[in-house]
Amino acid sequence: MRSDPAHTDAPESAHEVIVLGVTASDAHAVANQLIAHGLRAHGFTVINLGVCTPIEEFALAVRENPGVLAVVVGSLNGHAYDDLCDLPAARAAGELACPVILGGNLSVGSRKDPDALDRLRRLGVDHILSELTDLAPLLGELARKAARSRRLQTI
Amino acid sequence: MRSDPAHTDAPESAHEVIVLGVTASDAHAVANQLIAHGLRAHGFTVINLGVCTPIEEFALAVRENPGVLAVVVGSLNGHAYDDLCDLPAARAAGELACPVILGGNLSVGSRKDPDALDRLRRLGVDHILSELTDLAPLLGELARKAARSRRLQTI
Amino acid sequence: MNRDPHRRTDPHAAPEPEYPSMAETVRFARTRGTPTVRDVLARSAKDAVVAIQPRCGVGGHPEMRQLLRALESGARPDVLTLTIDSHTRLNRFAHAARLAATDPGALNGYPLVAHGWQRGRELVEAVSAPVEIRHGSPDARRLFRVAVAAGATSFEGGGISYNLPYCKDVPLAHSLACWREVDALTGDLRRAGLTLDRELFGTLTGVLTPPSISLAIGVIEAALAAAEGVGCLSISYPQGGNLAQDVAALRAIPLLARRYLPADVEVYPVLHEFMGVFPGRRAHAEQLIFYGALTARLGGAAKLVTKTYQEALGVPDARANIDGMRLAAVANSPLLDFVTVDAEQVEEELHWLLAEVDDLVAPVLGAADPARAVTAAFADGTLDIPFSASRYARGDVLPCRDASGAIRYAVAGALSLSPAAVARHRRALGLADGPHSMRTLVDRVTRDINHFLHLFKEIEP
Amino acid sequence: MNRDPHRRTDPHAAPEPEYPSMAETVRFARTRGTPTVRDVLARSAKDAVVAIQPRCGVGGHPEMRQLLRALESGARPDVLTLTIDSHTRLNRFAHAARLAATDPGALNGYPLVAHGWQRGRELVEAVSAPVEIRHGSPDARRLFRVAVAAGATSFEGGGISYNLPYCKDVPLAHSLACWREVDALTGDLRRAGLTLDRELFGTLTGVLTPPSISLAIGVIEAALAAAEGVGCLSISYPQGGNLAQDVAALRAIPLLARRYLPADVEVYPVLHEFMGVFPGRRAHAEQLIFYGALTARLGGAAKLVTKTYQEALGVPDARANIDGMRLAAVANSPLLDFVTVDAEQVEEELHWLLAEVDDLVAPVLGAADPARAVTAAFADGTLDIPFSASRYARGDVLPCRDASGAIRYAVAGALSLSPAAVARHRRALGLADGPHSMRTLVDRVTRDINHFLHLFKEIEP
Ligand code: B12
Ligand code: B12
């Protein structure tokens, strides 16, 4: 049930497109693959970049697939902050303009410092979810917002 | 194998006489009974007062049995100091003139404060043994000393 | 000089305080919104999950409160304990009160009478698990009143089991009479709406306790208590270390209850984790603790009273106590459903054990006045315990371990056992062929007392 | 933008330092007066007592030293570990070095390459247990040199098992070539007088790893290593949670070794305590930890790699790690000699497992160039793993749990298994009757991934 590499997984419908992946130093694949399945079941088109995905690779996928609704990033191994530290530079260069959603196990250690989440927000992460079940509703809301703004543009 | 009550256990030979017992608030009987057996096997005559023996009862046994070599006291339940706090008064009153030997588990708690032993010595305990195996040799030495001083007295 | 051999009350003790009314006591226990010990036991028996209870008692009141809370938050025990100090146990209330005021850390338990029932209630209210009073008082009448007023819902002891191991010169007739009062009050409370649990101390002197003696005394005390109207009884048994024997003993309890106790009395089997000489090294102690917990589970105990890896050293600290309970709880895991015990061995032990208990119990319970029969039986040795602390049992019995570690009678004294049973014991010990020197036997007993030290190679053979 | 798909070395990494000579390395390990990992394994196998090893790695050097010493004094493990951080695993040495210098606590392991072999030696010298390097590097050549120079005597990994679960786009041919170098150096060291232990990572992606895949990959990597002169191999297997299946898998290891490996190679079975989704509640985690340790014992593992009650939360602290090891050690107790596993069930599992491993392994090991055959087999799916992180395995296999919790193939993809074996799996899952929707299967897999959360009622069904 592994996801195919990104290039063979291009959006094939008018559905909302999600770019999904796990951070650069992180090899945890299971949640990633289940999330890809789950989002597809919810009707999203998922470009799953899989594990060990640096910011540049997320940026490339967004660039190559116009209209991406959101970038959904998982990080389990505790390196979220370090792995995302290229995000501000990429954003400054005009990349990754869509919302970035992050979830997983976001810092090292078994006692979590809430400051860790603030640091991630300061890097430019737009949404940090603590529950996977919140992901589809959030994407739905983003999709409604996007549709509304598209409608506004066509008026 | 319980020892009989003191009054039926009077010295029946010319052997050295030991008064044995466990402190006033302490009901631990097993070591006491094994020690009584062991000392008898070593040739001592043992007046075993058993558990829950207050100082006054030790004093009475010493008074009633002239020539007692030593009083051997066990304390397991951690109350050694409190149970022996009548010892200075008894000694001041001329009771319990022979050496008092103490052993067991001499204070409450699983981390032992060495000061606890000093406090017991200050009450007038003459010997504190940490190993039961040291008891018979110590009594042997006391017996030799006693014999020597008896000889000196008869000269 | 005070030569009163009973020494059961302290001349300098303070006068008894006012207690709350029985109705108030019942109201307190029933409206707290937390279970009583009996509720916990009933649930454990129903779910077949062993309830877990620590031993715990320190002298200071704030320290005791803190200890209970630490144990509760650290291990969520099903029942909590106030272990009473040994002055209070012997009704040396003034001693206990003086130490409570001047040096509470020097007490080996919580002096509940000295602190008083109001403080006891503070403790009961500080935790959500129900509280049992564990002590060792031949005459527990005063302690019982304080305990009940404090809101404890279980009270350990009995006229035999809290006499013979716990004092030197209190006549059995006296302790039995005192405990009859306790049991009668327990019956009153029951009629008033609060069923206390009364646990009988089958552990006795803890060291090589022969299962049939433990159970026989438990059954006798249970029958005496039931006769006074007690409705909930825990018959406890101390882990001896041989699994089949211990499992058989636990499984015997409901069978004996059915045989000897009224049908409307609830009876719960309880295991006390190994009560003899504990290994000193932490890793070894932990193995024995776990083994005990697994024994409780396999034997169908409703409750387990735990030990700690500091047992050989002294009264444990909170950390060790928590760790001991957590470890014991692992044995309750559904993941261990596959662990079983040799059914044939258990069957064989159970068969003999039931017969032996019958032999020991029947003459006493068949007597017109069972309490009086108890006193007489201990006087003539047809009932007896090894290593008796009291002069009111002969202490002629000598137990040893057979090659499998099971506890057998090397010397059965005058116990009213069948010759076949005695022969089986001596055969198991390789002693079938006539008398042996006391010296040899004492050496062997000493070795067997130190069984687990040998097993773990903590001492030389 | 760096699109090098292998990304196996870091352009900014520091130049390689001078290493001690091979002779010096051998001298260091042999004259320390402490055992090597291989010595420990040999002793464990001989005494039939499972050796215990924690996972442990933190970023800072003094912190790592302190951690090792705390674990050693707290639980006396038989083997200690340096768990390497994930930057170093992926040869992102400059990242690791930067964090080691600026924020070592942010690393999820010890960056051994960044700290250098001299510091590694300080760690090895700080403890008396031998040290293994546990990581997850598809290309571990540099890490291996540092590890050996530091005095580690065991090195985990293999060209398959440290590729497919640990990276996305390193071709198998490349990782196999890198590990061939590691194995050849291990062979050189052996000839120079130091037999390193090479542990193969049968855990793979940890989640529902089918036993026959785990063992097949272990056997293939073992054969490749033996061909390079490696003399001591640990074949590891991850606890799946069904006792009979796990015991069968462990017991299969020596049988497979006899069948596929040269007689002069030592092979030790190793159990990794449950490697999937761990329960979050401490009491539940402890039950699973103990169950794992008991599984290791019953399966005859020479070594157990432990988990902690913080597994679900994050990298554990020293306290939790010590507690996990102490708890596991209890399962080694002689008091548990009576615990056995259903022999018939194990026999049945073992029979099928050996046949499946044969089916998977034979084509590859029978090939002229086994390494090349491995690459081809993963390309066409005759070898495969579930949840592959890498594009170089198809990841078509889908495992589920049967009613007993055993892991079975719901979808066997193109695996070279016999039709009878596949049918047995699907039958066990109730899937015998044809195809099922992917949606249903994914729901079922999700449930089975969370098996222990359901078992302990931590989540709703
Ligand atoms: C069996 C036992 C009991 C039995 C005793 C039955 C009886 N009447 O004999 C029962 C269950 C009734 C019991 C009750 C209590 N016990 Co108790 N008991 C034990 C236990 C498990 C074994 C003791 C034993 O019999 N050992 C076998 C004999 C042969 O050895 P021993 O007594 O340990 O003595 C050795 C040495 O101390 C030495 N020794 C002993 N006496 C002497 C004397 C001399 C002169 C010398 C040189 C050496 C010496 O030689 C012996 C052999 O090495 C110990 C813990 C352990 N060790 O494992 C706790 C223990 C002694 N008990 C303890 C306590 C506190 C109690 C209680 C107060 C209850 C409580 N608060 O926990 C009550 C006592 C009430 C009272 N009035 O005293 C504590 C003492 C704590 C402390 N000092 O900090 C211990 C250590 C348990 C613990 N860790 O809390 N106990
Ligand atoms: C299986 C596993 C592995 C496997 C992974 C195989 C693979 N390629 O997938 C193996 C054994 C290889 C492995 C390796 C490592 N692991 Co790992 N692993 C686990 C484990 C046991 C389960 C993870 C898993 O698959 N869960 C199943 C899936 C379905 O759930 P999940 O990943 O937990 O994700 C859930 C949520 O986080 C969330 N979620 C996940 N992603 C996202 C994304 C979004 C957007 C949202 C909203 C939610 C979300 O939804 C999921 C369902 O609830 C966890 C511990 C645990 N949870 O029990 C450790 C764990 C995640 N691993 C950990 C670590 C550190 C590592 C290593 C670095 C080794 C090490 N130092 O210990 C290496 C990784 C190397 C690397 N380059 O990354 C740590 C992370 C520590 C921390 N954050 O403090 C954990 C927590 C273990 C621990 N306690 O130390 N691991």
UniProtKB/TrEMBL annotation, chains A, B:
It holds the Pfam family B12-binding. Transmembrane segments: none annotated. Coiled coil: none annotated. InterPro entries: Cobalamin-bd, Cobalamin-bd_sf. Signal peptide: none annotated. Residues 15-149 form the B12-binding domain. PROSITE patterns: B12_BINDING (PS51332). This is Methylaspartate mutase. It comes from Streptomyces kronopolitis.
TrEMBL record, chains C, D:
Keywords: Cobalamin, Cobalt, Isomerase. Pfam families: Met_asp_mut_E (PF06368). This is Methylaspartate mutase. The lineage of its organism: Bacteria, Bacillati, Actinomycetota, Actinomycetes, Kitasatosporales.
